[in-house]
Structures are given as C-alpha cells and as structure tokens.
Fold this protein.
Amino acid sequence: MLNDEALNQSDDIIISDVESDSTFETYLLTIMTERNQALAATVYRPKVDVKAAVMMAPATGIKRQFYHNFASYLAENGFGVITFDNEGIGESLAGSLAKCDASLISWGRHDMPAVLDALQDEFPDAAFHLIGHSAGGQLIGLMPNYEAISSVFNVACSSGQIKNMDMPYKLKAMGFMDAFIPLSNLVLGYTPADKIGMGQPLPRGVARQWREWCNGAGYIKTALDKTIHNHFYNKIAMPALWLGFSDDEIANSENIDDMIRVFPNMPVEKHYLNPKDLGVSHIGHMRYFSGKTHAKAPQLWQMAVDWLNEGE
C-alpha cells in the first residue's frame, strides 16, 4: 500500500546506548507496560532547560528510528523527545512474532500511556505534547492518562476508510486488507507487511484490527461500543493541529475529517497542503518525517516547532 522509499530511512540509523552532539544527547530506555511488556525507546535530551517534551507516537508498524531526524530537530530546538517501538515492532518484539498478542487497542491502551508516563519521569518540569503519525494520533482516545497532554500535532492521521480512497489505490488497499492480511495470518501467524513496503511485520491482532477498521467506518469508530467500550474520545479537549497532504492516498481530506469527528470536543486546526506549493514533488503518507523533505521544505518541521512553542 505505502511503497514509500522514506520507510527505508530507519534501516540506516543505529542509535547506541548514549550519543551526544553540541546541543543534545540521546540514550536508550526500556519502558514497561501494564501488560508487563518491555518497549524499546530512545530519549532525546537537550543540553538546555526543557520547557516542553514530546511523545512521538508512530504509525502502524513503523520503527522509532524512522523518526530519528525529526526528533533530533526537535531536540536541537530545545524540546525533550521520546520515540518508541510499539509492542511486537522493532526492538519491542520479544520472542516469536506469531505468538505476540498485541493489538491496535493494546497499543493505545497500554503502550502509549506507559510512554507518556516515562516522558513525565524523564522531563518532570516540562509541558507534555504528543506528535502522532497516522495510528499514533488515532489511538490517543484510548489513553487513560491523556489529560497530561497539553496539545497534539497530528500528521497523516485519518480514519483510513478504504471506501473513501480513490482508484487505483483503493484496489491495492483492498488486496492488502482482504487477501494479504487474512492469508498471511492464517499461514504464518502474523502479517509480513515489510514484504510489500508497509513497514515492519505486524502481530496478527494488529493486522486483523487494521483490516476490520479500514473496511468499516474507519479507525476507532468501527470498534466503538463493539470491541472498545471504555475510551476517552468524547472527553479529549486539548488543542490540536492536524496536518495532511493532497497526495496522501490514505489520509485524504475526507478521511481526515472522519477522524476529527471522532474527537467531538477537540479544538482542531486543520492544514491540508499541496506538496508542490512547498517546492516538494511528493510527501504522501510518510515523507513529512523525511530528512530529504525537510531539506527542501524546512517550513514543515518548523510548523511543529512553532506549534509546540505556542503550547508551552
């Protein structure tokens, strides 16, 4: 579905136990969830007083290294950051993937709250913000500690409804959801999404819910009052900026609006941009976080910095 060369960036970045440059340092952190699962995380700590700290919530199946350049930019601008791998992804996979029972719901209900707690522990005197990429922004309403978040900056975050996608991409999405996911789950016990440019291999529960939600009313909405009974979507009221791009075949404008409606009390500022107006040929679903995109359109990452500065 994605087939985006930006996904390959994460394979080129290796973060050692402690790294340092003139403005910030990075170090590895292990975060335990309520499910007693260990999550691999990286902390970016500026060498100045940190007034605001950011939880970088990843897209489905995307390793934390993918966000390294973006997190480094935030740290250079004085923000503390934590990036992390969800359970079953990257270095947060323990044992056989076929035996991993993680789901999108457990990511939102257990992984993300544990990371937010760790962010508060690492930067106790800061205001706390969440930058969500795709699923990372969709799952916020499952976090019982959401009230600690001062603001949200969502990128390519949408309902993901297949019915709202345009041809021929819709056919690719249908093939992935209705053939590749169920067959691979049946045969392998997991979904090797990496084989078709979809990030990392996915636990079967994650892939199964992804399929169900995108084939239905979209992320979260499909599951409300069915498999999700306790949530906070109606209570969340922190300010949010939602950023989308006209060449994103997944998070198109209609799907973004679908997702925004799931947060009825969230004051949302939506920016839907044409990459060509920014001097960039393609951004799509993934390339906002690409260093190459930043080099051509530095104003995009500056938007995040400006938003965070406003929310301090």
